[in-house]
Amino acid sequence: xxxxxxxxxxxxxxxxxxxxxxxxxxxxxxxxxxxxxxxxxxxxxxxxxxxxxxxxxxxxxxxxxxxxxxxxxxxxxxxxxxxxxxxxxxxxxxxxxxxxxxxxxxxxxxxxxxxxxxxxxxxxxxxxxxxxxxxxxxxxxxxxxxxxxxxxxxxxxxxxxxxxxxxxxxxxxxxxxxxxxxxxxxxxxxxxxxxxxxxxxxxxxxxxxxxxxxxxxxxxxxxxxxxxxxxxxxxxxxxxxxxxxxxxxxxxxxxxxxxxxxxxxxxxxxxxxxxxxxxxxxxxxxxxxxxxxxxxxxxxxxxxxxxxxxxxxxxxxxxxxxxxxxxxxxxxxxxxxxxxxxxxxxxxxxxxxxxxxxxxxxxxxxxxxxxxxxxxxxxxxxxxxxxxxxxxxxxxxxxxxxxxxxxxxxxxxxxxx
Length: 417
Known about the structure:
This protein has 417 residues and is an all-alpha fold. The chain has helices at 2-20, 27-48, 61-85, 100-124, 126-135, 144-166, 170-186, 192-205, 210-232, 240-268, 278-281, 283-287, 291-294, 299-307, 323-331, 335-352, 358-371, 377-416.
């Protein structure tokens, strides 16, 4: 059975983590946790869930078993790449004791951005966006909803730039607390969880006290619980425990559902036209266009349209996603192993160069590093690029300000001599 092969592959990944001293709080560890969520949850629902479901592919045991075998091969490839290529590189601390005033001023400047983000997210945030999308029958709302999303991304970049430039201190923790408030107001978790995780990873790297590390894992667990709780608040149920289990079950089943749909298409189309990796190369360029201009021109959109007549439901009926779907669209049954191997190689490169390319690393980890497994790659790459552009703008502004200060100070220095 596929579930035993999958369990064995997870044991192998844990063995590799032990040998290479890879922590749970890492891109490697988070990837494994999502692999378990997206594969075990559908299997549990099939074996022990209600006999009736609105989504027919969740009752297809052969399809779920096939996915388990394919993801097992992906897990083995991930483990082998890390076993032979990965080496642990400590995250260098940033010595900024002489920049106390600059760090305080940066935090004070960020406060108005925080307030504007909260005001906009309360009216046009993720919770309002999903409601507006439902009212418009699936058509994505634009205007202020899009503007609010970019303001939220900018505020994320404000935080990421700070920890890249100055490291972790009291001001960074206060900025992170502001992001907790934004998450609660906004109702979305996608921006908060990655920055919380990259923060905790940096904190563990810079502290060797084992008791402190254990506390960090407790904080990480609480952060995940809080993020789930923000969704649970809008659900109706008999207890808070029941309401918090619902988002996890939905994420595990509906996030995985597009993978089952891609397998369904690959199994039932005589000569499917695969993307052969174009969705990882050309689609990010398409996603950079405004949504109204983009239409259905991406390679992956072409795949979903091609398989649509084989599906009992519309593609991604509740909006979830799992990278296995796109890998199958690219290379059929070989896709999970090939794509996972390439992703592992890139993860390892970034880990090895985290100190020489600090901003690039932080931008990568907080987007593609954590979200690749649960988001269409083109969208994930777009978030990575947005973060990088905003961080670059902040850096350029900071340097221009220093140049202006030095230019103003130069005449005074000359006159004093």
